[in-house]
């Protein structure tokens, strides 16, 4: 590593790098949850038969995000419950 200017702490630089990595990972997980949720809602609206398969993907995405701590586990449970009710009522 090159010599740093005064006032630049290596620990602060490392913390910044770590925060950027975590932020990008978290954004990806949140995006997946949001996109799959929208797909399920769109398929239910058009009465598509693939809604159940997409629901499984959405539930999996919510569980992964909750496991990693990106969203709260109760938030994940609420999202899964609402989507499941929506798909079941459309049958």
TrEMBL record:
Q: Does the keyword Cytoplasm apply?
A: no
Enumerate the residue ranges of region (Disordered). Answer: 1-27
Q: Which GO terms describe its cellular component?
A: small ribosomal subunit
Q: Which SUPFAM superfamilies match?
A: Ribosomal protein S20 (SSF46992)
Keywords for this entry? Answer: Ribonucleoprotein, Ribosomal protein, RNA-binding, rRNA-binding
State which residue ranges cross the membrane: none
* Superkingdom: Bacteria
Q: One MF term from GO for this chain?
A: small ribosomal subunit rRNA binding
Q: Which family does it belong to?
A: Belongs to the bacterial ribosomal protein bS20 family.
PANTHER family registered for this protein in UniProt: 30S RIBOSOMAL PROTEIN S20 (PTHR33398), SMALL RIBOSOMAL SUBUNIT PROTEIN BS20C (PTHR33398:SF1)
What protein is this chain from?
Small ribosomal subunit protein bS20
- State the organism of origin: Elusimicrobium minutum (strain Pei191)
